[in-house]
Amino acid sequence: MISLISPSEVKSPTSIAIGSFDGLHAGHRKLIKSVVEDNLYTPTIASFWPHPREVLYKETRLRLDLPEEKLPILEDLGIEQLVLIPFDKELSKLSAERFVRDILINQLQAKNISVGANFKFGFKRRGDINTIKNMIKDTDIKLKITPILEDKEGRISSSRIRDLLEKSDLKNAFKILNRPYSFNGKVVKGKGIGKSIGWPTANLEIDGRKFLPGEGVYAAWTTIENSNKKIESIMNLGSQPTINPLLPSAVEVHLINKDIDLYGLNLSVVPVEKLRSQIKFNNIKQLASQIKNDKENALGIFKNCKK
């Protein structure tokens, strides 16, 4: 698959879908399928980066999937290139008609355009599927519209996934994502407190743009870079109320029954189930005793996972 590229580097003509595709959930996959089915042109995904609301309203938009994390998933789905359209104040002033003409038709050479039924774009989001229809009515360009996908709980959306993850409902988030939720981080130096009480942890530096589940202690699978082996682990996500409640939120991973020097390595973490919320213990000894219980509870969860 061609790596992250700008519109000027695109392999064209294209069969293209436009959207944020954050989470690549079932609704996104249905839209992607309509792109891949047209095998006459290069199957392509186009997304704005950064998110328009970050530029226009200074909102922080944490992502379920960062662009580089999407690549292997998109490749498995048959997409050949992910085009990131740089979004800035100048682009925000571009009319919907000019966006279709200048970017989709002229620059990306789209021959097949796939969008969701609620797709809005252009200056003040004034463009919609009817705008595209009018712009391509005298051309050989096709427009495919994918209906909004719903299940018994309602509309399938990235916001719904975020809400489930915030509540630590990993099981239902998995159902919508159709894959485990994961994140990556580089192991950086910590204070060594975990090691001093018999529970060494790897402190992870996570990309600040990545969405993380709700705070707490989790059973988690950890994979070390350049390895496919999943290691049973306990993850603490959040503050350290017993050690120092003033410390910033952090991600720490303890590999169960493993003694590996992880400093400087990248780890991939898949939280499986929340064990408990964070607790402020009276002393370090009580904390160590609780971590021992966490370990046993996590091992029980992993045992059931393997059945």
From TrEMBL:
It comes from the Bacteria. The keyword Nucleotide-binding applies. It catalyses: riboflavin + ATP = FMN + ADP + H(+); FMN + ATP + H(+) = FAD + diphosphate. GO terms for biological process: FAD biosynthetic process; FMN biosynthetic process; riboflavin biosynthetic process. Keywords: ATP-binding, FAD, Flavoprotein, FMN, Kinase, Multifunctional enzyme, Nucleotide-binding, Nucleotidyltransferase, Transferase. This is Riboflavin biosynthesis protein. GO terms for molecular function: ATP binding; FMN adenylyltransferase activity; riboflavin kinase activity. Belongs to the ribF family. The keyword Cell wall biogenesis/degradation does not apply. Residues 176-303 form the Riboflavin kinase domain. Pfam families: FAD_syn, Flavokinase. The gene is ribF. Its EC number is 2.7.1.26, 2.7.7.2. Pathway: Cofactor biosynthesis; FAD biosynthesis; FAD from FMN: step 1/1; Cofactor biosynthesis; FMN biosynthesis; FMN from riboflavin (ATP route): step 1/1. InterPro entries: FAD_synthase (IPR015864), Riboflavin_kinase (IPR023468), Riboflavin_kinase_bac (IPR002606), Riboflavin_kinase_bac/euk (IPR015865), Riboflavin_kinase_dom_sf (IPR023465), Rossmann-like_a/b/a_fold (IPR014729).
